[in-house]
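Researcher: Here's the sequence for the chain we discussed earlier.
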Amino acid sequence: MSTTDYSREIEGFNDFIENSELVDILLVGRKFTWYKPNGLVKSGIDRVLISKWIDFWPNFQEFVLSRSISDHCAVILREVSVDWGPKPFRCLDVWQRDSRFKKFVSLSWASYEVVGGGIFILKEKLKKLKVDLKVWNKEVFGDVNLAGKEVQKRIEVLDTRDDECGLAEAEMEERKGLLAELNKA
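Model: Thanks. This is the structure I predict for it:
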């Protein structure tokens, strides 16, 4: 594709945004949302386009989340003043591959004594199972989340430095190694 064709496509996309009366919300915190795996190219190609109704709800902001194994950073639009309550119940993929998992869940579930109606019993048993699974996860797998968070924090530091002033060759290699380590974890 020639540079002229590329410029024409960009202009056409920008015209579409304007004609559709869409608004491109500014990013909060980060400049770029995509990184080429070698770290030499980065872009803000991921974006949230919304209709002009945003004027009625001014507390919305677009946030760029830290990337993990993807070359794209997730972009979310959220209202900054909303408390969504407690985190939902989660089940990690690694648990499903462990031969002890199903037996642990079955024995734990059967051991819970809860009195009440059906939905109340389900909710209370899930709360108890959540607590037991956190303990079991640390006993069986160690604190994998902590290690992953530390790697992600280092990647985020490197990405931020890259956004601001670029990275040295050694730092690009470090980031590539950290991404591989995170993918493996």
